[in-house]
Amino acid sequence: MTLPPGPRLLGSLRAISMQRDPLGFFQRCQDRYGDVFTLPFGTALHPTVWVCDPVLVEQIIAAPADQLEAGSANAILRPLVGDGSTLLLAGEEHAARRALLLPEFDHARLGRDRAEIAETTADALRSGRSGEVISLWSWVRRLTMEIMLRVVFGISGGPRRERLGVALADIVERSGSVTMLMPPLRVDLGRTSPWGRFLHHKAAIDALPYAEIATRRADTLLELRGDVLSMAIRARYPNGRTLTDSEVRDEMMTLIIAGNQTTAGGLAWALEMLLRHPVEMAHVREDLASGGEEYLGAAIEEALRLRTPLFGLGRGALVDYRLGRFTIP
Asked: Which of 85, 108, 230, 298 is the least buried, fewest Cβ under 10 Å from its Cβ?
């Protein structure tokens, strides 16, 4: 059994090239090796097969859990999200955690969040001046973080929110570094080394969400709060067990790491494309003015189709898995 073709080694210079031009890097790999190729890194900590063919991608996403699973494929995120993250759990443990947290994402809950998201966005828009030139990417990232601080952590203002927002934005930025993408570089040689600096910084940042968790557990109004953090603290498995502080922290960091830049990216591209297509923008505005949102929804879905903000997702093979003309061990 042989893996699909691909470069044997991935040196540091090539890793830097990939970080600076990820789309170009993967396009060159696809042009050279085809729709299925192997790289010595990936969302996992071992050689990873990359699949570009839409039919095979659909097959992978729909594969049964006893053939392909996501936990091992997300292992590269462990230093960021922690061992207790749903992204890293597998089998029955993963299914139980998903069932435990599912109420956080039901339609009724998302409907309640809607008003808070709209209010936060309106505040951000009112702060701008007519004719002002802004960096769209920076603006949507700040907006997305503001929304997460309110909806996920339940913090609406004050110095606590400012400190937590700055810290979380920093760790999100570090999540795309070469050190994070290249496991062999994860060597702690003290605070002067890249990985040593990351670990020291992460420890300082972790103190902030843990402080929020402690404050929330002591809140006499905990049962009335609707933010994701409070719901995670209240959640109980069928046997009565609740999540530990570290598990709650890991799930909060998962939402931030997995949701901040992806949501911001989807929003930025949707706005950019609408601004470049004034006729479509006019249709969106007309639909909204008449009380509808169907055209807005269609515009968002089309923007996500053309500018997908997540460049890849991973699965780990639990069995020898047939993928086109290859068998993945």
From this structure: 108
Whether 184 and 11 have beta carbons less than 8 Å apart is answered as no
pLDDT tens, residue by residue, 262-306? 999 999 999 999 999 999 999 999 999 999 999 999 999 999 999
> CA distances (Å), 77 to each of 15, 171, 250, in order?
17, 12, 11
Chain centroid to Cα 23, Å, comes to 18
Q: Give the separation between CA 124 and CA 143, rounded to whole angstroms.
A: 7
* 309 burial via Cβ count (<10 Å: 0-12, 13-18, 19+): middle
Detail the DSSP E strand segments found in the chain: 36-39, 48-51, 68-69, 316-317, 321-323, 326-328
Q: Which two tokens stand for residue 233?
A: 């603290």
DSSP 9-71: ---HHHHHHHHHSHHHHHHHHHHHH-SEEEES-SSSSS-EEEE--HHHHHHHHTS-TTTEEST
Whole-structure pTM value: 0.84
Q: What are the phi and psi torsion angles at 38 (to 5°)?
A: -110, 135
Find the helix packing angle between 294-306 and 245-276, rounded to 10°: 100
- How far apart are alpha carbons 164 and 88 in whole angstroms? 24
| Each residue's pLDDT tens digit, 200-211 | 888 888 889 999
